[in-house]
Amino acid sequence: MGGLFSLWRQRVADNARRAVDAYQEELLEYRNLAAMPRVRSEMLDFAVFLRQRTVDLAADSAPFHVQDLDLMAAMGRQRGEKGLTLTAQRQVLLVHTRLTLREVYEAAGPNDIAATMHTLAWLAPAGLAAQGAYTRGWIEGQRRTLATVAQVRLLTVMLLAGDDSATDLARGLHMPVPDHVVATVVRVAGGSPGPDQAARDEFAGALLKTHWMPLSWPEPHEVVAMIPSSPGGRQPAVERGLALARDVASMTGRPCAAGTAPGRVRAFGDAVALARQVSEVAPVRAVPRHAYTVTDVFAELGAARLAEVGQWLQVVAAQLDAGPDLVATLDAYYQHDMNRLDTAAALCIHPRTLDYRLTRVRDLTGLEPGSTRGVRVLSTAVARILAG
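Structure tokens predicted for PucR C-terminal helix-turn-helix domain-containing protein:
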């Protein structure tokens, strides 16, 4: 196996320079860092070290030593302290992996098939160990420089991406990340521009004092949270989602809707995607009454995905606009399981007034509000109206 490793070792310096050039060319943040001569020199020294150790240890089938991993962690820590973003941190690991594989193939000759396969087998576990050390160092560097709100936001982003290193950041924050979770998306209604980043960070800081969980306010009109749960007891987590939505509505002074979906921490992104869809069809309210699940809005979700059904429901909604307070009346009617007395009391009207309004709905739409068909159609139409 000497041919491959001999040529690979000879090219260490050239490969290191090529790697630093690639970082500068492909990664804007590294381009800015490498513009400083001292930093570029440090990058080059580290690139040489990493390649030299890779060749030597691959040839012997030996893992990286503790001292090697400590040095990688120190470099990651330095990058984290300089504000290297999560995106750039991931990209540099990807570029390094790609370059390493190319260096192996360039050094391999026609008689190095066995050596090449041996090296590729060694690279998988060794590369993961090196990347893990660098990432742990980067997380530590981020923790030294970022405010708590920013650290929690970063944790949420990493969990959304399924990043295994997120557990290291969660551990440093003393924030539990169980296997079973309920993803919650709070949709904030209202026009643009909405709260700016500074305001969202202030709001998020206040939320964390009450709701110590992974959460992020990435966009003006959306809050994402991961609520710890258990396989057979999701209701407490859903209720925490409702409390979160009410706090968001109170802070922003805007109506909100909360969508939830159960999931596993390793598939958090999928659960958030579903919770987001639920929140988009759930009614927005000044004081949210419910954290919705797919079970609550499956009809609305189906209607939202079929343009023809959506258009038909718009016709029904337009018919309801012709009567006084019919949408609010139907909303209360279905919220109280079609109980006349409870609905009238909630609306502060006489039961006969309620009966008049329900008759008006039937006359306008041709649907009896208390019939099976009426419930299916009218409750979906009302939900779409209230969702905005």
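Residues 303 and 310 are 5 Å apart (CA to CA).
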